[in-house]
Design brief:
617 residues; 5-stranded mixed beta sheet; single chain; 7-stranded mixed beta sheet; 17 helices; 17% strand; alpha+beta
């Protein structure tokens, strides 16, 4: 159970080497922390798995650390996500009662992350640590004790956010669309003085704030994020539903046209406001979490019932405007139910990729909002068309015609640009390629007519034509966007290597990975990688005196690695200086794409050389 801190390279989850217990809040004094009945946990509690009763208690962890190194070590300790009031205690393993001391916050606080505590271990020090903390009253907290090397903390927090990078992009995109709708609603209100658009602007502002703060504050361990997760996000959601129902009543003029629906929605609004007041009272004046969770689920079910009643009423009335709004409500409710099921059950639609955006509950809620917004805009267009169709019919026709012409013009410009790019590529291949090929053939014909007489300039012309033809083919291959894949790069390298050594005494073998990931590789990156490999093969041909060359290509989701091995004379220090230009070019090319280049040479026994190229994908 003793954790060797010097063995940690980056970070380590220590749930299985940690003992855990809990007690009612404020029942256990600091001096009695070591007396608690600690037990071994399964290792961790993931978000949405943490028992509700545990959130209402003080939680305690016990773990032992050892530093076998000759130098001091600093590690960062995190009990889990959304943990607060974290305090650490330290004691010697052989005398816990006599040496138990609370570590001062000034010593263990880390300014880089408020949820992290720094632990210092002297050389060959061994100690036991106790941690007291509370969970934030939310269902997204987790218990995953973890140790992180002090120098790796910033990279670790960055990796946490990058895990949901696609979800953040989608969330910010939806937030931007909602922000646009705020300006649109205010513009409509200024022009037409329709009060319902003030309420719609409030609805979109609340929803935009909800989504933006959710992503912006994610993984942040500060008091505002905790307050937001515990209380503010749910209050914003409830307020948005109340405001949206007021907007709908005014938008469809339900007080005069649909009095029964107006009455139902008004009563639902009153019920939601009363439930929110009770929820706020429980939050601010008690430490309960289970009651808050029950009330939150009950209010969400009230959202669901309200939406179902509105949809059923709209279907019964068969009014196009009501049907547009009902379709939007149905889309939002259906996708919110999927989101809710994912939260409760941890259901993963994409099982082979746990970090997929399609496994995130927030994605489906946001997608439902997008669909609801689309149906609302459709309903708004229908309402406007119904009200002013006769007055603006001709103007709309002209407007659509102009837009169609502009679109056709843009499409024509885009088509012309694409055709020009294709023409340039084809001209390079047909005109320049045929011209260089002709030069090469004529030089070969001239050499054959000279019947053995060597003309150095003619030989140079032939060689230059060959080199130029190869470089031009490489440029054309780089320009084509259809080649921007890892599979194309590997296939091109293999084909070049086999062809390059085909008519030479050197036997070339290329070992490919069993599975090539479907990754995109830009033209610039492909060019630098290929030219580096080409330079390496050229050096091997000229200087290695090898009879065999092996190219080993391996890859994973993040890295492409290419090794070029030969059984030649190797590389010594003098040759490194003599041919340093080519090697420095290879290193420069790989570093320009955030890759690396390494040389391994064994002179003393079986002479060989290994060049290793690594590049991120």
């Amino acid at each position: 159970m003793v954790i060797e801190a010097s063995d940690i390279r980056f970070q380590k989850a220590i749930g299985k080497q940690t003992l855990f217990t809990s007690a009612p809040k404020h029942w256990v004094t600091d001096a009695d922390i070591y007396k608690l009945p600690y037990k071994q946990t399964p290792g961790h509690y993931l978000p949405h798995d943490l028992p509700g009763w545990l959130v209402e208690q003080d939680c305690f962890l016990q773990f032992a650390l050892k530093n076998s190194a000759d130098t001091a070590i600093s590690v960062c300790f995190i009990p889990g996500s959304y943990c607060r009031l974290i305090t650490l205690f330290k004691a010697q393993i052989d005398d816990i009662p006599g040496t138990l001391t609370r570590l001062p916050d000034t010593l263990i606080n880390d300014s880089r992350n408020a949820g992290v505590k720094r632990i210092h271990l002297q050389p060959h020090e061994e100690a036991v640590f106790f941690c007291r903390f509370n969970f934030v009253r939310t269902n997204v907290n987790s218990l995953i004790p973890r140790l992180i090397m002090d120098d790796y903390l910033k990279q670790w927090t960055t990796l946490l956010r990058e895990r949901d990078g696609m979800l953040y992009v989608f969330t910010y995109t939806v937030s931007g669309v909602l922000l646009f709708m705020i300006f649109y609603s205010l513009a409509v209100y200024i022009q037409s003085r329709n009060k319902e658009f003030i309420f719609y602007a409030w609805y979109t502002f609340l929803t935009c704030s909800l989504l933006f703060l959710k992503s912006y504050l994610d993984t942040s361990a500060n008091w505002f994020n905790y307050f937001y997760e515990e209380y503010l996000d749910f209050m914003i959601m409830t307020a948005s539903v109340v405001v949206y129902q007021i907007f709908m009543r005014k938008f469809i003029n339900s007080k005069e046209v649909y009095p029964l629906l107006d009455k139902i929605l008004r009563y639902f609004n009153i019920l939601l406001i009363c439930a929110s007041i009770v929820f706020s009272f429980v939050y601010f004046f008690t430490d309960w979490y289970i009651m808050l969770n029950i009330m939150e689920n009950a209010i969400k079910q009230l959202f669901f019932v309200t939406g179902v009643v509105f949809i059923a009423y709209s279907i019964k009335k068969k009014n196009p405007l009501l049907n547009y709004l009902a379709a939007g409500n149905f889309s939002l409710i259906a996708l919110s139910v999927i989101s809710y099921i994912i939260i409760l059950t941890g259901w993963k639609l994409v099982k082979n990729d746990p970090t997929s955006i399609f496994n995130r509950a927030l994605f489906y809620y946001e997608f439902g909002l997008v669909l609801e917004l689309g149906f609302f805009l459709s309903g708004l267009a229908f309402k406007n068309r119904r009200d002013i169709i006769e007055r603006v019919k001709e103007r709309e026709r002209l407007k659509l015609e102009n837009e169609r012409k502009e679109f056709d013009k843009q499409m024509a410009v885009m088509a012309a640009k694409q055709e020009e790019r294709n023409r340039i590529s084809a001209d390079m291949h047909d005109e320049l390629g045929s011209g260089v090929t002709a030069i090469r053939l004529m030089s070969e014909i001239m050499k054959s007519r000279l019947k053995g007489d060597v003309v150095p300039e003619l030989e140079k012309i032939s060689n230059s034509a060959n080199e130029l033809l190869g470089k031009m083919n490489t440029i054309i291959w780089t320009m084509k966007s259809s080649n921007d894949t890892l599979e194309s790069l590997i296939a091109y390298i293999r084909a070049h290597a086999i062809e390059y050594f085909d008519s030479t005494p050197i036997e070339c073998k290329v070992q490919l990975p069993a599975l090539i990931p479907q990754a995109e590789v830009s033209g610039e990156k492909r060019r630098n990688i290929f030219l580096s490999i080409k330079e390496a093969l050229n050096n091997a041909m000229k200087h290695s005196q090898a009879s065999q060359i092996q190219i080993i290509i391996s890859t994973n989701d993040k890295l492409l690695m290419i090794k070029i091995c030969d059984n030649g004379v190797g590389i010594d220090a003098d040759k490194l200086r003599r041919f340093g230009n080519g090697l420095s070019n290879m290193r420069r090319r790989m570093e320009s794409i955030d890759g690396s280049f390494k040389i391994e040479s064994k002179i003393e026994s079986e002479k060989n050389c290994v060049l290793t190229f690594e590049a991120p994908i």
